[in-house]
Write a structure and sequence with these properties.
This protein has 11 helices and 8 strands. The protein is α+β, with helices and mostly antiparallel strands. The C terminus is likely disordered.
Length: 337
């Protein structure tokens, strides 16, 4: 029996059903969680359990953003429900969840994916320019997207940069602004154009870091050949003390991770590695998300750079910093450190 039929059966055969709120909790094992949730609402469910970005067990749960925008854009079909949700916060919420979970959103994900409002083919571009509703049933800004355009350059000042951050929805203190501005200026030397997506990627990486961290990357180098063998060296500040180490591995990233492990002394197992391009183009920033396992616990990290190897190192060190802080916290509470 389908979910709509199940709910209709319950309503017809359960005494007192009118006095309770029917709730549904759908998973996406067959890619139908949103469809099932909407069908349940049509059948009378008035509580639906959803998650931002659809994250969850197995194939995930019903995506909050998909249900909310389906109900909003199709009021004529589903009814005019008061959802009490500010839809302009959907994309910012998605970014927050991605940053906290280190689970990236697929580019073609509805509403919050990087390509959700992208148009490449000529006929699509022409149609959107002439009348956006030809291809878009909602506007990008209605869910919190901003235009992906060139907004800043290497001659932009700190005040202008702060203002752009505010327009993108970020409020940062002076110390964080200084660090972000340095990263931005470095990026303008590496990229021909810097878009909003590039700036957001830098911000999201920087916001992973809270307070002092034991490990800071100072320098790295790596080289490899066609046989796959690679050698690498790193210089890392460990609680303010410079330490160097070398490593060998199957590729530059593997060799660098080996060198970093020698510096930190942490036995970490790489559980997951994921890479995306922040924007199109040969000079695009690479966004790397990693998950490592240390003493049975999972720690995540995210790195962004125009060099994929560098972004991989940044992500790995972030995860190691989180692991080190997690280990020190209970020891500090007990007065050991």
């Amino acid at each position: 029996m389908c979910i709509r039929g199940s709910i209709e059966y319950l309503k017809a055969n359960t005494p007192g059903i009118e006095n309770v709120v029917i709730s549904v909790h759908c998973h996406d094992d067959l890619g139908m969680s949103t469809a099932n949730t909407l069908a349940a609402i049509q059948a009378g469910a008035r509580q639906v359990e959803v998650t931002v970005n659809g994250i969850g067990e197995r194939a995930g749960n019903t995506a909050l953003e998909e249900v909310v925008m389906a109900l909003r854009t199709r009021r004529d079909y589903f009814g005019d429900y008061d959802l009490r949700i500010n839809t302009r916060e959907i994309v910012p919420a998605s970014r927050t969840v991605t940053r906290a979970s280190s689970i990236p959103v697929q580019p073609n994900k509805a509403i919050v994916g990087a390509n959700a409002f992208a148009h490449e083919s000529g006929i699509h571009q022409d149609g959107v320019i002439k009348h956006p509703e030809n291809y878009e049933i909602m506007t990008p800004d209605s869910v919190g997207w901003t235009g992906n355009k060139l907004v800043m350059g290497k001659h932009s000042g700190r005040a202008g940069f702060r203002q752009r951050l505010k327009e993108l929805g970020y409020e940062v203190d002076d110390e964080r602004l200084k660090a972000l501005y340095v990263r931005f200026i470095e990026l303008t030397d590496r990229k021909k154009t810097v878009s909003d997506a590039d700036i957001v990627a830098i911000i999201e990486e920087e916001l992973q870091h809270f307070g002092p961290e034991p490990y800071t990357l100072l320098a790295w180098r790596a080289h490899s050949g066609s046989d796959g063998d690679a050698e690498a060296a790193v210089i890392v500040s460990v609680n303010g003390i410079e330490r160097e180490a070398t490593g060998r591995g199957n590729g530059q990233i593997d060799a660098l991770y080996e060198a970093i492990d020698q510096v930190t002394g942490i036995e970490a197992e790489l559980a997951q590695y994921h890479i995306d391009a922040v924007t199109p183009g040969e000079d695009a920033q690479g966004s790397v998300a990693v998950r490592i396992r240390v003493d049975g616990q999972i720690f995540s990290g995210h790195g962004v750079a125009t060099d994929i190897v560098e972004s991989s190192v940044r992500a790995y060190l972030t995860a190691l910093n989180r692991a080190a802080v997690a280990v020190r916290a209970p020891l500090k509470a007990e007065g050991v450190v």
